[in-house]
Each structure stands twice: as structure tokens, then as C-alpha cells.
Amino acid sequence: MKRHHQVTIIDIARKLGISKSTVSRALTNNPNVNPDTRKAVLEMAKTLDYQPNMLALSLIKSETRMLGVIIPDIQKPFFAAIVSGIQHAVGRMGYRTIIAQSDESPQIEKENIQALMLSRVDGFLICHTRDTRNFDQIKMLYQKGFPLVSFARICQELPIPKVVEDDFNGLYTTTQHLIERGRRRIALLAGPKHLQASKLRYQGYTTALRQNGIAFDQELVAHTRFLTENVEAAVDRWLALSEPPDAICTIYDAGAIQVLQLLKKRGIQIPKDIAVAGFGNDPATGLVEPGLTTFEQRPYEIGLLAGKHMLDILKKRFTDTPPEITISEGKLVVRGST
């Protein structure tokens, strides 16, 4: 097959018998071009379906008006809603986004950063993988002067804007809710210990226990990598205790839904025997039976805030250093599982 030819200003110039510099000036509305010539150039450009070379224009203007967004998993509603918020925030100001998925792999995250650099994006908005511990790549971007915003799973090692969920308050509120329902043996399905969100949610849980005079029991805490086999192992271990939990709260909804399913398979009544609570308010939480009590984290707003911070950097609105942490406040949504 014959390769499609991209129409250039040279093609327009040849058709009209004028110089390519005249065509270039006409297309950029240079006042020194004769009006009749400009009209002829614009009509020929339309006839030939001429499209400007955006890469060439970006080299001239030193900007592409494209932003790189890196997320762990686009299939998860949480990340999809954040991307939607980012796109709505920056799209109003004429910016477009290139979405890259790391698939929870630090190596792919690194490759995405390199690919987006080659695409000459104007800035990066990044949510790191659950296993990212080395931030050399994002530090390199910072040293090169790229505008950076970190969200959800953040890099704490750089003075850049960070947008996070209401992590501490979320688990504090959820644990307090379970205590008010008469629960005293509250288990926690936590995440990887190195993740900041996991640390803060763990602190919210332990603070609520302490303030209510409930002794902390390490046996009731399970740190996971958000994998299904981790959840099943934790539930099996808790049910085998001489005194099993009377409530299980999790730091993510997918884990809580799996806990519901596992308990029901074992003939355990929810919430009579064991209450269950999640974190996130994913769409599925209102569809399971019983409906899942969960802490809503408002991912769309997280995206809007992240996009706003990026625009502030690009417009140089920060007089000193950008805001370190912006928290998107959430709320407890109570359903049948508690």
C-alpha cells in the first residue's frame, strides 16, 4: 500500500507557485502578507486537508500543551474517576492529556516516564505503583524542571504539590462508627507498610481504638499487597483465633467486598456475627448484599485538585513553594454491612 502523505507547507507553496515562507506567514496571520494571498493559502490548505505539525510547533513554542498522567490501573473506577477530574480541570485551559498505565509495575512506571519525556509533555501528574520505593526517575524530572504533581500514592521526597484522600480521618471515622455499633474486636485489612496512605489509615484505626479504651491487638491487623490471596489468608487466620473479630474494616473496597463473599461462604451472618466496612465507595459497594458501609474518598475531586495544581505551576501562580499536601475530604456512607 502507498504510504499516506502528510500535506506540508511545501505542498501548498507548490500548488500556488509561491514561497514556503509566504505560506508559513499566511498560516500564522502575519500582517505583512497580502490579504488575497492569505485567502488563497487558507483555501488551498483546506482543500489539501493540511494539518499543522504539532511537534514542529512545540519545538518553536517550547510547549506542547500536553500533560502526561501515569496511573496504576485504568480499569479501577477510582483511577478512572481521577483521570476524568484531571482532564476536565486542564481541558478547560486548552491542555490535553496522555494517559499511561503502569500496571502496578515500577519498571513500567519508569518506562512510561521516559516515553512521555520523548513525547515532550509539558508536565507530569503521577500516582505511583503499590511497589514503588525508588523515586530516582521523578527526582530526575524535578531536576530537569518539569512541572510535577503527585496524587493518591505520593512521592514524599520532593517539594511538589501532592493531593491525597482523607486517609487518617477515613479510618478513624470508620473505626469509631464500628465501636459505636458495639464492636470491640475490630480487625484491619491494611495495605503495604511503606505506602503513606496505608500508614495514615492504620494510624486512624489505632487512634480510634486508643481513644475508646480498646487495647490494640497485632493479631487483628493484616498488611496486604491488595491481592486476593492476601485477603483470604487474613480472613482464615482471623476466623481461626480463639476470639475471632466481630468487625473487619479494610483500607480498600475491593478487599472489603472479597471479605463479604468469604464470610458468606462460611455461613457467617453480616452484620450480626461480623460487621464489614470498606474505603472508597466504589460503584459495586451499593450493589453487593448487604450493601457495604464505606468511606467515600471522592476521586473525581482528587483529579480536579491535581489538575488545578498543575495549571498553577504552569502559569507560575506560586510565589514561593507550592502547597505540599491537599486533602480531598470524604464522608462515611453507612449501609447494611454494619
What is the count of DSSP helices, taking H or I runs of 4+ residues? Answer: 12
Give me the strand/helix succession. Answer: HHHHEHEHEHEEHEHEHEHEEHEE
Number of domains: 3
For the biggest sheet, the summary is: 6 strands, parallel
Distance between the termini: 64 Å
Indicate the radius of gyration in whole angstroms: 26 Å
**What do we call the CATH homologous superfamily of the largest domain?**
Response regulator
How many strands in all?
12
Output the structural class: alpha/beta
- Any idea what the shape is? elongated
- Helix-residue proportion: 40-55%
Average pLDDT metric: 91
The amount of beta strand, in percent, is 15-25%
Q: Strand order within the widest sheet?
A: 2-1-3-4-5-11
Quick structural overview:
The chain has helices spanning 9-16, 20-27, 35-47, 54-61, 77-91, 106-118, 136-143, 167-180, 196-211, 228-239, 253-265, 299-314, and strands at residues 66-71, 96-101, 123-126, 148-151, 162-165, 186-190, 221-223, 247-250, 275-280, 293-296, 325-328, 331-333. It has 338 residues and is α/β, with parallel strands linked by helices. The model has no long low-confidence stretch (mean pLDDT 91).
